[in-house]
């Protein structure tokens, strides 16, 4: 596992986006695994910039998002909306090539992913150590499934909703074993509230920290800022 300490989110976004652009230019039908939330925003901004500067085309790219809320009240609250707003509507990706897990048939997502194989997976991490919405104590063998969100996750994500009551209580998420099938994984963690989750991840495998499964993967890079780095003091 590689750990890269960067000055800020902008630097992290630039570096990950340039790795993605390089990959797509080598392999135009690259399959990307994507996250929502605040962590990948700077990466998506840089990808849009690269597209507008004609450095890359997403015409043949396929994407699989990690997760989607179940039972959201407004379209605007969905992760599908988030992705369109923050990336898809600004680039030349084809709508049919973008995928989200379906709560009515979660396991179908694993089958689709198995057929395509994710080349490059972008992850954030929850303050409780979740990746996707794989909350603490989930099985390391989990496939795409419906999950209840923890109180911590509901509270952390309430900033994007009208009120805490509007945050859905459930989501459908790729499982840990689904995520582990990606050929290459990058995880972004910035800010003090991610530090203890990163500390748990680096301490080795434990079910309390689902992200710690990444210790088993042969090609993972963790991008940190100083605040999230447990080795800093
Ligand atoms: C989002 C996702 C989550 C987030 C995590 C961190 O699709 O899968 O695991 O990556 O909750 O969220 P932010 O980046 O908002 O701190």
What would you say this structure looks like, in words?
This protein has 233 residues and is of the alpha/beta class. The protein has one domain (2-227): Rossmann fold. It has 7 helices and 10 strands. It has a 7-stranded parallel β-sheet with strand order 1-10-9-6-2-3-5, with helices on one face. α1 (9-26) packs across α2 (41-52). The protein is globular, with a radius of gyration of 16 Å. The mean pLDDT is 96. The chain binds fructose -6-phosphate.
The low-confidence parts are none
What is the fold named in CATH at topology level?
Rossmann fold
Bound molecules: fructose -6-phosphate
Number of helices: 7
Q: Which value, in Å, is the CA radius of gyration?
A: 16 Å
* CATH C-level category: Alpha Beta
- What is the spatial order of strands in the main beta sheet? 1-10-9-6-2-3-5
Task: Assign a percent range to the helix content.
Answer: 25-40%
Major sheet size, sense and barrel closure = 7 strands, parallel
Quote the beta fraction.
Answer: 15-25%
* First-residue to last-residue Cα separation: 22 Å
Number of strands: 10
**Tally of discrete structural domains:** 1
CATH-derived architecture: 3-Layer(aba) Sandwich
Protein structure class: alpha/beta
Which descriptor suits the 3D outline? globular
Mean pLDDT across the residues is: 96
What is the H-and-E element order? Answer: EHEHEEHEHEEHEHEHE
